[in-house]
Amino acid sequence: MATEQDSAAEGDADTYDEFEQRVERITNVGNAAGILQWDQEVMMPEGGTPARAKQLSTLSSISHELLTDEETGELLEELEGSETTESSRNTSGEAASSDLAEDQQAVVREVRRRYDRSMKVPEELVAEISETTSNAHPTWVEAKEEDDFSIFAPTLEKLVELKREYADHIDPDADPYAVLFADYEPYIDIETAERILERLREELVPLIEAIDESDAELETDAFSGEFDDETQEELARDVLDTLGYDWNRGRLDTAPHPFSSGTQFDARVTTRFDESDLLGSITSTIHEFGHANYTIGLPDEGYGTPLGEARDLTVHESQSRLWENHIGRSQPFWERFLPAVQERFPALEDVTPRDAYEAANQVYDDNLIRVEADELTYHLHIVIRFEVERDLIRGDLAVEDVPEVWNDKYEEYLGVRPDTDAEGCLQDIHWSHGSFGYFPTYSLGSVLAAQLYAAAEADLGDIDEHTREGEFDDLNGWLREQIHVHGKRYTTPDLIERATGEEYTADHFLEYAKNKYGELYDLEEY
Amino acid sequence: MATEQDSAAEGDADTYDEFEQRVERITNVGNAAGILQWDQEVMMPEGGTPARAKQLSTLSSISHELLTDEETGELLEELEGSETTESSRNTSGEAASSDLAEDQQAVVREVRRRYDRSMKVPEELVAEISETTSNAHPTWVEAKEEDDFSIFAPTLEKLVELKREYADHIDPDADPYAVLFADYEPYIDIETAERILERLREELVPLIEAIDESDAELETDAFSGEFDDETQEELARDVLDTLGYDWNRGRLDTAPHPFSSGTQFDARVTTRFDESDLLGSITSTIHEFGHANYTIGLPDEGYGTPLGEARDLTVHESQSRLWENHIGRSQPFWERFLPAVQERFPALEDVTPRDAYEAANQVYDDNLIRVEADELTYHLHIVIRFEVERDLIRGDLAVEDVPEVWNDKYEEYLGVRPDTDAEGCLQDIHWSHGSFGYFPTYSLGSVLAAQLYAAAEADLGDIDEHTREGEFDDLNGWLREQIHVHGKRYTTPDLIERATGEEYTADHFLEYAKNKYGELYDLEEY
Questions:
Q1: Which residue is closest to A38 within chain B, CA to CA?
Q2: What integer is the mean pLDDT of B62-69?
C-alpha cells in the first residue's frame, strides 16, 4: 500500500514529467529552428529568404508562447514547492523542492531563469528589437561599405536605447550592461569578467610590446602560396579525422562566416577556404571542431532539457579555443599533422614542424581586424569593444564619440590607429544584431581554455606526447567527463571549480602566453 | 461615415485576417517540417535520427493542435456565415459567406476540409497509426530481404484494419477506399479514378501485346556504358538549365529515392546516379524538375495559405510526367539535348537523336518492377496495386491471398509471373507507410499530363519546334498561367476544365500512347 509520502512523491513525479514534456517541446521547436538557420547559411538558395524569415518567425513565436504560457509558470511554482530545506537550495539561490533529484532541480533552475527573463520583457519591445535589428543589418553593411560611421550612428543609438530598456525590464536596479552580459553568460558575474579582461589588458600590452621590440625572426612565410579549395577541403577532413570528429553525428560544409551548430546527435561544422590562406582554414576548422565536439559530448539522455545543452558561451568558447590554440597551435600538433599537409600540398615539402609552429603563432601588432588577429592581440580587440560597449550601455559614452574613443584605444593598447571606420568600430557585425555583452565571452573562453588544459595536464600527464602521436582520446575523455556530460547541470563557476579544483582564473592563460611567446620571441624578461 | 454594411464588411475582414494569420502559422510549421525532412533525406548524418524524429513529432503535434483548436472552428463558422446565397456556394458544396472574395472562399473551403478530417479522427488512432507505420518499415524491409510475405502479413493486416477504422471515423457511410483516396486526391471522385484506370488497362494491355509481337528492333543499347557520377551530375545541371530551372529558388542534390520538395520560394530537386544507367538519371531529373517547377510557379503572394499550395497529387504528377514524358522522352528533345550529353560523354559520339529517342522509349514487357517500368507498362503496375489495395480496404480480399492475386494479375495483364514476393507485392514501400489510395494518382497524373499537353499545343502551336530550339518559355508560361498560379483556388475538376476546355479524360493519353508507340514499333493496327 502506498504511504502518504509515496503519493506525494508520485504527485511530484507526475508534475515533473508534465514539466519535462513541456520543456522538451520548447527545445524541439528551438532545435528545428536551428536546422532552418543552418540550412539558410549553408544550403538555401537566395530566393528562399522571404519564406524562411516567416518560418523562423513562426517557430520563434511558438517557442515564446510555450515558454511564457501560464501553465509553465504554475508547473515551476509547484516544482519549486514551499517546503524547501536549506540544503536543497541550489547554487543560484533559487528555491527548489527537496523532493526533486539534483538533476531535476537544475532543469527547474534553468527554465525558471529563462521563464522570468521572457515574462519580464514586454512582447512589443521584443518585436521592436527584432524589427530594428532586421533593418540594422543592411544599414551596418552600407556604413561599412561607405566607410561612414554616421550612417550607422542613428541605428546604433536606437539599439542602445532599446537594449537599455530591455535590461531595465529585467532588473531596473542592476547595471544594464551586466543584465545584457547575462544573456550570453548567466553565471559569471560582470565584476569577475571585468577583472579578467583588465588583467589581460594589463599583462598582454607589455608582452606584445616586448614582442614588437624582439629581434627574433619567425618563419612567417611557411605557408605562403596558392592552395585550391578542393584540396583544402580534403585537408580539413583530414584534420577532423585526426582530432576524432564523430562523422556519424556531424558533417563539414562551407559558409562565409564559419560556425558550428546542432545537438548531441547531429553537430555540424562549417569552415571556409581562401586560396591564399591555408593556415586560416586549418585553424578555423579546428576551432569549429572544438565547438561541435562539445555539443556531441553532451549526454544523449539529456536531449530535450537543459541537462543536454551546452553551458553557455564562455564554456563553449573554452572548448573551441582549447582545441584551436592549445592543440592546433602547438608544436607537437605540427609534428603530427604536417606530413598530412605535405601529402595534400607537395609544394610545402621543405617546411619543418618548427616553421609551421612559428607561422601559426606569429604576432601581428599592427593588425586592426579582430578576426585576423593572432592569439595574443586578439584579446585587446575584445577588451576595446568590451570597454566601448559597456560605456555605451551604461550611458558613459555617447554614440557619436565611439569612433574617436575606439581609435584612441587602439593607439593606446596596440600602438596602431585605424585610418577608417570600416577598419575600426564598424568592422564587426555583432552590434547590428543588438548583441551587447557577447564580446567578452570570446576572451573569457580563451582564459578558461588555458585553465582547463592545465587541469587536464595535471590529471593526464604530458598531453604534448599524446598530441605528437595523434592520440586525443585521453584529452577528449577528460573534457567529456569534466565538462561535456554535465550539460547545464552546474552553474559555470561550479563547473569550473569541479573540473579544475580552483576558482575561475586568468593565471593559467597568462602563464601559457608568457611561456609560449617568451620562447618563440626569445624574450629575456618572460 | 461608415455605413452599417461597411462595418459588417470590416468585421468580416478582421475575422478573415485573424483566420489567415492562423492558417499561415500552420503552414509555416508544416514548411519548417518539410525542410527538416529534406535535410534528413539529403544532409543529415545518420546519428541524427533520434533527435530528428522528436523534432518532427513536436512540429506535427503543434500543427495538429493549431488546426484543431476551438478557435479555428469558430473562425471557420463565422466566415462561412449564415446568410449564404445560392451563387456563393462553392463547388464542393460548402457554404461560404457571400462577403468573402472568391479567393478567400477557396481558402475557407480548403481549411474547412482539413479541419473536419482532423477533428473526426481521434488522436489516439492517429498516434496508433503513426506508431504502427514506424514499426512497419523495418518489418517490410526484412520481409523483402527475406523474400517472405508472411513476415509482413500481420503488419499489413493491422494497417488495413487501422486505416479502415480511420476511414470510418471520417465518413462511416462512404466506401472506405474512396475516403483514403481522398487524402491524396480530394476532388476527383473514386468512380472517375476507377473508370480511368479501367480504361488504361483495357486499352494498354492489347497495345503492349502488339508491341511484344512487333518485329521492330529499337536501338536499345544507345546509352550502354559506364558513366561516372560527377559528370552525370554536371549533365543533370545541364538538363535543368535547358528546361529553365530557377536556380535562385532551387538546388540539386542526390538522394537514394529522388524527390522534390519545398515552397514557391525554394523548391529543391534531388536525383540519383547509377554508373550503368545514364538515361535513368536524366529522366528522373526531368521528372523532379516538373514537380519543382510547379512548386516554384505557385504564386508568391499566396504563400502561407492554400492559394500558394499545389493542387494535390494528380496535378503535381501531371507536371512531372508532362516534362518527363512529353518533353524528355520526345525525339525533338533528344535533337536538342544529345549534343550536351555527347560533350560530357564523348564515348557516345555515334549515337543519333533517333537512337536516343528509341532507347528512351523501349517497352519492357517482361519487367516486374514498377520503378524500372517504361511509360506504358508502368500503368499496369499501378492498376494492379490499385485493384489489390482497393479490394483489401473494401474487405473483398484477405491479406493472406495478396501474393497469389498479385501474381495472377501480373500474368493476366503483363504476361509475366513474379517468382518471388520481393519482386512481387513486396516491391514498393508505400503500404508500410499506411499509404492506401496513393498509387492511382501516379497514373491519373500521367493521363492529365497528356490532356494538358494537348491543350497547350492547341493554344501554342507546334511545341516540338520549340523543344528542338530549347525554347520552353511558352510551354512553361502556359502551365504557369493555366495551372501553377491558381494554387488550390479551384477544385481539381474545375482547374482541369478551365485549362483544357473539357472534362478530365484519358482520351489524350491513349491517343498519344497509340500514336507514339504505333510509330516506334511499326504497329499496323495503331
A1: B39
A2: 96
Tell whether pTM > 0.95: no
| pLDDT digits 0-9 by tens, B379-407 | 999 999 999 999 999 999 999 999 999 99
Question: Could you tell me if residue A151 is inside a domain?
Answer: no
Q: What chain B residue is nearest to A34 in terms of C-alpha separation?
A: B36
Put simply, whether B264 touches A (Cβ < 8 Å) is yes
Total of domains in chain B? 2
Residue numbers in A near B250 (CB within 8 A): 45, 47
Q: Decide if pLDDT at B434 tops 60.
A: yes
Model pLDDT, residue B365? 78
- Stretch B142-161: mean pLDDT, rounded? 97
- Measured CA distances, B250 to A43, A185, B237, B264, B292 (Å): 10, 39, 12, 9, 8
Q: Minimal Cα distance from A33: which residue of B?
A: B32
Cβ–Cβ gap B25/A58 under 8 Å: yes
Which of B36, B60, B237, B266 is best to mutate for the A interface (most A CBs within 10 A)? B266
Per-residue burial over B95-126, b if 16 or more Cβ lie within 10 Å, else e, is bbbebbeeebbbbbbbbbbbbebbeebeeeeb
pLDDT bracket for residue B428 (50, 70, 90): very high
| pLDDT above 70 as % of chain A | 95
Between A28, A59, A247, which is nearest B45 by CB? A247
- Distance in angstroms (rounded) separating the CA atoms of residues B284 and B290: 10
Contact B187, B313 (CB under 8 A): no
Asked if B266 lies within 8 A of A47 by C-beta distance, the reply is: yes
Question: Which B residues, 62 through 121, put their C-beta within 8 Å of a C-beta on chain A?
Answer: 62
Same domain, B247 and B171: no
Percent residues over pLDDT 90 in chain B: 90
Does B409 map to a domain? no
Smallest CA-to-CA distance from A473 within A261, A293, A273, A248 is with A293
Contact A265 B51 (CB under 8 A): yes
ipTM of the complex model? 0.93
Does A43 map to a domain?
A: yes
- Point out the domain boundary residue: A85, A120, A155: A120
**Contact by Cβ (8 Å): B36, A34:** no
Mean per-residue pLDDT of chain B:
94
One domain, residues B52 and B162: yes
pLDDT for B237 equals 98
A89 min Cα distance to partner chain B (Å): 32
pLDDT tens digits, one per residue of B488-510: 999 999 999 999 999 999 999 99
Output Rg (C-alpha) for chain A, integer angstroms: 24
Residue A87: predicted pLDDT: 45
Give CA–CA dist A284/A233, Å, rounded: 12
Q: Could you list the residue range(s) of the whole structural domain that residue A24 is in?
A: 4-120
- H helix intervals, B49-100: 49-68, 70-80
Q: Which one of A62, A254, A303 would you mutate to disrupt binding with B, by most B Cβ within 10 Å of its Cβ?
A: A62
* Interatomic CA distance for residues A283 and A329, integer angstroms: 8
B248:A47 CB<8 A: yes
**B121 and B13 belong to one structural domain:** yes
Query: Domain boundary at A120, A153, A182, which?
Result: A120
- Does residue A82 carry a pLDDT above 70? no
Q: Which of B252, B265, B303 to mutate to test the interface with A (most CBs of A within 10 A)?
A: B265
Asked if B265 and A50 come within 8 Å (Cβ–Cβ), the reply is yes
Give A-chain residues touching B28 at CB under 8 angstroms.
54-55, 57-59
Distance from CA of B54 to the nearest CA of A (A): 7
Q: Which of B29, B265, B268 sits opposite A58 (nearest CB)?
A: B29
- Asked, for residue A141, whether it belongs to a domain, the answer is no
Instruction: Give the model's confidence band at A9: pLDDT under 50 very low, under 70 low, under 90 confident, else very high.
Output: low
- Pairing, β A266-271 against β B260-263: unpaired
Give catalytic residue positions of A.
288
Grid coordinates representing B356 are 536516343
Q: How many CA atoms lie within 13 A of A308 on its CB side?
A: 21
